[in-house]
Amino acid sequence: MKNTVRKTVSLIKSLILKYREPIIYVIMGVCTTLVNYCVYLPLSRFVFDDVFGNVTIFSHEFTPEAFNALVCNAIAWTVAVIFAFFVNKYLVFGDFRNKERGFAFQFITFVSSRAVSGIIEVFTPSLIIAVFSAKDIVAKIIVSVICIVLNYLFSKFIVFAKNKTSITDNDAISGKKK
Questions:
Q1: pTM score of the predicted model
Q2: What is d(CA 13, CA 19) in angstroms, rounded to the nearest whole number?
Q3: Which ranges constitute the DSSP H helices of the chain?
Q4: CB-based burial, 64-89: b 16+ in 10 Å, e otherwise
Q5: Residue 110: how many CB atoms within 10 A of its CB?
Q6: CA distance 176 to 167
Q7: Which of 175, 177, 173 is nearest to 23 (CA)?
Q8: Per residue in 68-80, pLDDT tens?
Q9: Residue 61: what are its φ and ψ, rounded to 5°?
Q10: Low-confidence residues of the chain, pLDDT below 70?
């Protein structure tokens, strides 16, 4: 019995070490999504509730609920992107380069890549609400899943692509830098 437990613990430990980056990314993605929702829900329910009338954008009339979702999503997305940059840089991809020029370039690249998914995040729920008469939270959940996948691909292969100054997975677990 003890041997089976040891083997199971050893297997779990090796899987965590092997897949550390995607595991941490998923956890931080959930945290980023929670930040987004924690900003969105109070804004949409208390701050901007019943503030807007019908609004026309791109020759399409948005109901007050759809436009409310648009404004609240834009604010929530901005806060979540700033949070995501720092957790992805330091916790997920273990990039501790902080030279002013490199940091600024990474931040700009990150924000630019998030802008692509941000356009989807901000406008798509409102369109889903307007076209399909869906509840705002249902539209937001659908779009969140799509954006999480897109954001991982952008971060992994563009913004935080492995480089010589990144730390290794094993060093990240122990907290050591190269």
A1: 0.69
A2: 10
A3: 2-18, 20-42, 64-86, 100-132, 136-154, 169-174
A4: ebbbbbbbbbebbbbebbebbbebbb
A5: 23
A6: 8
A7: 173
A8: 888 888 899 899 9
A9: -85, 125
A10: 49-54, 57-59, 100-101, 163-178
Q: How far is CA 143 from the centre of its chain?
A: 11
136-154 helix and 20-42 helix, angle to the nearest 10 degrees? 150
For the purposes of burial, counting CB atoms within 10 Å of the CB of 94, is it exposed (0-12), middle (13-18) or buried (19 or more)?
Answer: buried
Is the CB of residue 165 less than 8 Å from the CB of residue 178? Answer: yes
Give the tokens for residue 150: 């897109």
Q: Give tens-digit pLDDT for 52-98.
A: 666 776 667 777 777 788 888 889 989 999 999 999 999 998 888 77
